[in-house]
Amino acid sequence: YVMNADGSGQTKLTDDPADDFVPVWSPDAGRIAFMSDRDGNLEVYVMNADGSGQTNLTNNAATDAFSAWSPDGTRIAFASDRDGNYETYVMNADGSGQTNLTNNPAMDASPVWLP
Tell me: the pLDDT tens digits for 43-62? Predict the structure, then answer.
């Protein structure tokens, strides 16, 4: 859902029986990244701010979660356990170019960007 700051104008953006959660606005407020298990495991999705164009960006058998937009909105960082434990990855905002940024036995999750 989205709503005005005073609680009015509540609008449902997703309508799937799966869990859709942890929404993150793009810097230009035109898109929202979110996590969903609608494909049987957690994936990173993106949609337009009005709820249209919902697209699975990560689309693999691993758990992909905790997305964070780059300050310019061209890339998204996320955590994935596709290499055995949680590591931090980055991808283009369209899901292409997924690259592992960390590789160690500790859990590297919940990435953030600094301006």
Answer: 999 999 999 999 999 999 99
Percent helix, strand and coil across the chain, each rounded to 5? 0, 35, 65
Residues 6+ apart with CB under 8 A from 18: 36, 37, 38
Lookup result for tokens 């793009």: 26
pTM of the model: 0.94
DSSP string computed for 66-80: EEEE-TTSSEEEEEE
Kind and range of the H or E run holding 100: strand 99-100
Instruction: Tell me the per-residue pLDDT of 78-105, one tens digit each, with 9 for 90 and over.
Output: 999 998 899 999 999 999 999 999 998 9
Burial 62-77 (b: 16+ CB within 10 A, else e): ebbbbbbbbeeeebbb
